[in-house]
Amino acid sequence: MIIIMKPGASEENIRNVAGQIEEKGLTVHLSHGTEVTIIGVVGDKSKLQGSNLEIAAGVDKVVAVTESYKLANKKFHPEPSSVSLSNTSVGPENLTVMAGPCAIESSTQLMETAFAVKKAGATVLRGGAFKPRTSPYSFQGLETEGLKYMKEAREATGLSVICEVTSARAIEDAVKYVDLLQIGARNMQNFELLKECGKAGLPVLLKRGLAATTIDEWLNASEYIMAEGNPNVILCERGIRTFETATRNTLDLSAVPVLRLKTHLPIIVDPSHATGVRAYVEPMAKAAVSAGADGLMIEVHP
Question: pTM for the complete prediction?
Answer without folding.
Answer: 0.90
